[in-house]
């Protein structure tokens, strides 16, 4: 498999094919691949017994049949919850075991204290070339870079203004802005500086086409079949 950044264009499924299947589940990631995604994006948090799990919110309430903070539950407690269609909240390791080497993996760190284990699991599974560890938080990105500068990192931002400069100052390979703030100028600036540039989260095919026409390297979507 080619390295994550060697593809011409990446279709990145946001929390898997999350428009069709329960977000951040193995089922949703399988669907994303069936629909032709070249990469999957997912969110990482930590259980109270220190295991890395794939879930977006800090609480389990919205996406499972349980209640309470992810960080207040053990892995066993998290695994007892229904994350939709009988799916369980996956561990990061389960995602690597099932999808490592099959597609790009965009790993968003949602909380402090996830950096070290994430890096060590990436190395254990030999996935350095297949991942981008991304975050809204510069301090998480700095931690990952300090642990292993060979692991590609990415800055996620809402606004485009200043994001190229910030991504470069953090040593990122990737910058991802909200599609509403994506401009041709931002794409040019990012690419001129050697950054891989993508935007989130695009679910309208016409908007997707317009953005692809700006020269983006990738688009993050809940609906990989429509783009
Ligand atoms: O990767 C971009 C996007 O996933 C960031 O927003 O809230 O869906 O994690 P969110
Ligand atoms: Ca995310």
Descriptors:
about 230 residues; alpha/beta; TIM Barrel; eight-stranded parallel barrel; 8 helices; 9 strands; about 30% helix; about 20% strand; globular; binds SN-glycerol-3-phosphate; binds calcium ion
Q: Briefly, what is this?
A:
The chain is of the alpha/beta class.
Could you describe the 3D structure shown?
This protein is 30% helix and 20% strand. It is globular. The protein starts with 9 loop residues before the first strand and ends in a 6-residue tail after the last strand. The chain has helices at 26-34, 75-79, 92-99, 115-124, 138-147, 163-169, 184-192, 205-213, and strands at 10-14, 39-46, 52-54, 104-109, 131-135, 153-157, 174-178, 196-200, 218-221. The protein is α/β, with parallel strands linked by helices and 227 residues long. The protein has a domain at 3-153: TIM Barrel. The chain has an 8-stranded parallel beta barrel, surrounded by 5 helices. The structure holds SN-glycerol-3-phosphate and calcium ion (CA). The site of calcium ion (CA) has 3 residues, from strand 2.
């Amino acid at each position: 498999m080619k390295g994550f950044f060697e593809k011409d264009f990446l279709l990145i499924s946001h929390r898997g094919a999350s428009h069709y299947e329960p977000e951040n589940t193995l089922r949703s990631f399988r669907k994303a691949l069936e629909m032709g995604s070249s990469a999957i994006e997912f969110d990482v948090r930590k259980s109270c017994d220190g295991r890395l799990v794939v879930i977006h919110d800090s609480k389990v309430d919205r996406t499972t049949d349980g209640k309470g903070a992810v960080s207040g539950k053990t892995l066993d407690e998290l695994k007892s919850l229904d994350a939709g269609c009988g799916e369980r909240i996956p561990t990061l390791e389960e995602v690597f075991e099932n999808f490592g080497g099959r597609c790009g993996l965009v790993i968003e760190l949602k909380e402090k204290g996830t950096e070290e284990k994430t890096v060590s699991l990436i190395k254990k599974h030999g996935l350095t070339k297949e991942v981008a560890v991304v975050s809204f938080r510069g301090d998480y990105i700095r931690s990952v870079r300090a642990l292993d500068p060979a692991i590609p990192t990415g800055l996620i931002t809402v606004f485009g203004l200043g994001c190229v400069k910030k991504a470069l100052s953090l040593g990122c390979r990737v910058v991802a802005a909200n599609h509403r703030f994506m401009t041709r100028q931002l794409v040019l600036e990012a690419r001129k500086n050697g950054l891989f540039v993508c935007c989130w989260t695009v679910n309208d095919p016409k908007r997707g086409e317009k953005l692809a026409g700006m020269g983006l390297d990738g688009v993050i979507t809940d609906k990989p079949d429509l783009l």
